[in-house]
Amino acid sequence: MLTGKRILLVIGGGIAAYKALDLIRRLRERGASVRAVLTPAAAHFVTPLSVAALSGEKVNEDLFSLTDEAEMGHIELSRDADLLVVVPATADLLAKMANGLANDLASTLLLATDKRTLVAPAMNLRMWLHPATQRNVQRLRDDGVVFVGPVDGSMACGEFGPGRMSEPLEIVGGIEEMLKHSTVIALPNGETANALRGKHVVITSGPTHEPIDPVRYIANRSSGRQGHAIAAAVAAAGAKVTLISGPVTLPDPRDVTTVHVETAQEMLEATRQALPADLFIAAAAVADWRVAQTSDNKIKKGKDAPVLTFAENPDILATVSTLKQQRPKLVVGFAAETQNVEDYARQKLARKKCDMIVANDVSPATGVMGGDENTVHIVTAAGIETWPKMKKDEVAVKLIALLAQRLEADA
Ligand code: CTP
User: Fold this and answer.
1) Is 354 noted as a catalytic residue in this protein?
2) Local structure of residue 127 (DSSP, 8 states)
3) CATH number of the domain enclosing 352
4) Of 95, 190, 196, 209, which has the most beta carbons under 10 Å away?
5) What is the pLDDT of residues 281-310, one digit of tens each?
6) Shared domain check, 209 and 174
7) Domain count for the chain
8) Which one, of 194, 193, 182, 190, lies nearest residue 232 by Cα?
9) How crowded is residue 70: how many other Cβ atoms within 10 Å of its Cβ?
10) Among 271, 315, 320, 379, which residue has the most ligand 1 atoms within 8 Å of its CB, making it the best to mutate?
């Protein structure tokens, strides 16, 4: 189901544009809202009036419309959507998207977005098979654009082959697939969609690297997967997310502002800069110590092995928890332990003065480190709750549901 989802539909100028009308109907039947934008060419195939009637929303066509800009600027149009859908995606639109051209409202929206995009191409088969189009398609795929179709079939021009647009129901299937990981959370008051809309959430993730000299560092073992999965789930629940990430090999999550840092001190500074926030989640594996005297030059091998002295790093979680001003309403920490998990977690909750500790056993036998699954214990002043073993992104979604309820209850 697509309840509460907002689709920005770009209708391209091709004979298949009439199918966009059916698509609007199908999407609305499933609970989605649809805002449509027509390219100048599209208006030759479908009328703005029928699109407006079916979508129940004003249709936007003009990049330079003062009235539209006053109502909702074109940047907001794409920011406000959960997904951008291009139907039919003509060779011209694909070429513009692949090259970042923005000379009308549709192409400008497609460039000015930080949301995911699905395209359903439709064109003559020779246009589809042309190396220029195939090059553009490959580029767009590399950029993360999702393609539905085209399929083989007879075309309006009388030829047969690949280039025919997929049917609306197939496009709906593609849209549902892309949006299925979005978090729709049931709140106690019966509200469901976008439980964290309007909230700002700051999350730390990954390890920190503490330099010894320009080529060496000490670090904690952390892939950043759990923190990044939480950031993605929080963004999907409608929040504005700032992710402060130590060095990881993961891509930046979508719809999230990611700040890259190396050291614990930089992570603390970036966290301070990101406040105020409603919620702070410390999922990073911060190095507890840094090398007291780092060397400006590479330390050369000598007779004796070098002796390193350490200085304690700031505790980011404890610092944020005890802020006089700007303490987020909810502060959540993680505890990675290899023994006495629950006991140590309880102590950490008290010591760091946070509202919740998500504790897990990371002893090598569990395979949690770098793995996809996790068994966590939720420790609060009220007690401990242990969740069954599940995938890290499932942990993320369940955790967000819990935090949204807590924020709601405290509001
Ligand atoms: N943490 C932090 N800054 C630090 C150390 C830890 O923000 N300098 C946060 C982590 O992000 C995590 C929580 O504190 O949310 C617990 O981290 P952990 O390393 O398990 O705890 P430590 O305080 O380092 O305690 P110990 O190493 O003794 O278990």
Assistant:
1) no
2) H
3) 3.40.50.10300
4) 196
5) 999 999 999 999 999 999 999 888 889 999
6) no
7) 2
8) 182
9) 8
10) 315
